[in-house]
């Protein structure tokens, strides 16, 4: 592995169930993550995914690639376009650094509206991965 290597993409269907389950699992009871009418009253066309669910999907993307023994050391992400039900998010990653048993990966998750999530993740790699 070296800087410039691209990770295989991960396609995530954005379902109503995923959005609601992610909000419940992270104890985010904001109505915009489970109540369509409340979301509409606040100006949103539908419920939308919370950042903690996005964070979990980014983590899954990296552990799927590097394996269950890798450790996420730093996750620095920013949200952009919302993830609404019925859309699809495609996660892509590019290794930007590899040194001393760690890798830094630039991650972008895009949906039909644009970039939903962008950021970097620092991962400790299992021995023999570098």
Automatic annotation (TrEMBL):
Q: Name one Pfam family in it.
A: MaoC_dehydratas
Matching Gene3D superfamilies: Hotdog Thioesterase
Q: InterPro entries per the record?
A: HotDog_dom_sf (IPR029069), MaoC-like_dom (IPR002539)
Record domain MaoC-like: where: 9-110
Q: Which domain of life is it from?
A: Bacteria
Q: According to its UniProt record, which protein family does this protein belong to? A: Belongs to the enoyl-CoA hydratase/isomerase family.
- Its protein name is Beta-hydroxyacyl-ACP dehydratase
What is the organism field in this record? Answer: Streptomyces kronopolitis
């Amino acid at each position: 592995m070296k800087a410039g290597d691209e990770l295989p993409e991960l396609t995530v269907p954005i379902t109503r169930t995923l959005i609601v389950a992610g909000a419940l699992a992270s104890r985010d009871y904001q109505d915009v993550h489970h109540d369509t009418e409340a979301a509409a009253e606040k100006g949103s066309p539908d419920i939308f995914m919370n950042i903690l669910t996005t964070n979990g999907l980014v983590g899954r993307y990296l552990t799927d690639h590097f394996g269950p023994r890798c450790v996420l050391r730093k996750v620095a992400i920013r949200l952009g376009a919302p993830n609404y039900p019925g859309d699809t998010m495609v996660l892509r990653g590019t290794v930007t650094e590899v040194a001393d048993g760690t890798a830094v990966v630039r991650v972008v998750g895009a949906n039909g509206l644009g970039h939903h999530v962008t950021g970097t993740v620092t991962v400790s790699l299992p021995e023999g991965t570098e």
